[in-house]
Amino acid sequence: MLTTPHHSVAIVGGGQAGLSLSHYLSERSIDHVVFEKHRAMHVWRTQRWDNFCLVTPNWQCRLPGHEYRGSEPHGFMRKDEIIDYLDAFKAAVNAPLREGVAVRRVAPRGQGGFAIDTSDGAFTADQAAAMRHKMWQHAEHQAGLTPAEPEAWAGSPVLNWQALSHDPVFRPLADNESVPDALDAIFEPGGWRRSRPGAQILFSLPEPGPWVLPDDWHMDCGFEQPSWPVPAVKLFAFFGEVGPRGGGTLLLTGTHRLVDRYREGLPAPAGAGRRNWLPFMRHHPWLARLLDGADLPDGGRPLVGAAGEIDGVPVQVVELTGSPGDVVVTHHHVFHTRSPNTATVPRLMLGKEIRRAEEGQ
Fold this sequence. Notes:
β11 (307-310) and β12 (313-319) form a beta hairpin. The strands form 5 sheets. A 4-stranded antiparallel beta sheet has the order 8-15-9-13, with no helix packed on it. It has a 4-stranded antiparallel beta sheet with strand order 11-12-10-14. Strands 1-2-5 form a 3-stranded parallel beta sheet, with helices on one face. The chain is of the alpha+beta class. It is globular, with a radius of gyration of 24 Å. It has helices at residues 16-27, 42-46, 79-93, 125-143, 178-187, 255-264, 274-282, 285-288, and strands at residues 9-12, 32-36, 62-63, 66-67, 97-99, 103-108, 114-118, 200-204, 232-238, 250-253, 307-310, 313-319, 327-331, 335-337, 347-355. The longest helix has 19 residues, at 125-143. It folds into 2 domains: 9-118, FAD/NAD(P)-binding domain, CATH 3.50.50.60; 125-355, Sandwich (Jelly Rolls), CATH 2.60.120.
């Protein structure tokens, strides 16, 4: 996944100092993010010997809002006790923490503020906000929908996004530093087609529960082409927060490898369409059970995240979740499906196909 967050304040480092700053910023309702290259309290876990202990008494441990409350105020905590104390502090602060994200560069911006280059950057939250603004303008014009009046969402007609889908506001989905680098790695530099501005708008409003595993598994193509070399990829991007059960696209990772084997056994090339996708899903019991969500316990929800193996190929049901600016790149032959949105906010995602360049292009 490729992401670039943007916030009023950025804290680099998720140790006790960084989380203390987060505590005070949260008290003042100041928007911020904490970047941690490894894991919060990483140094305490990995760079202290096993019998390490404090040289100050426990009663002096007074992190903001988290004083020592143990039974030995005049004792000296050892490494494991210190880590437990700090983990409890982390949980109490509940910081907007991005673990596993390294900050590579911080540079001043001409218009004020700073641009932060992280290890997982794609398009910015400002650009995502511009996308949301355009989207809601279109939704209000077409159906009177606004983000400020969720009570009016119920019973909304299906929206037509055709007029908006080619708007240049969606250009940052693919026109940024990270996505072209990923495409160069997949297709080789110059090996993919530069697409026109615009994107497929993947929007769904919250709907009454329960959440049920859908059965509309498909590809955005047929079985005409081999999976290798990669003929195309699909970009899935987030321009709003999408959490679990929030309508995020479900992927069947690993199926692109199965598609290639399945295709070789067909008597003739099979095109797109449910009549051809269904036989693929039914050709193995592990896949076939994903078509029976309505008849499974908890609507098949326990299968989300479930992993298996088919003829030596690892497969898994993955629910896409993310924050504004996140981008996921998938092989064009990965089966996927829209999922129900039983959360409280609309699903705001984008899709875009990028194809391999033909010779001479």
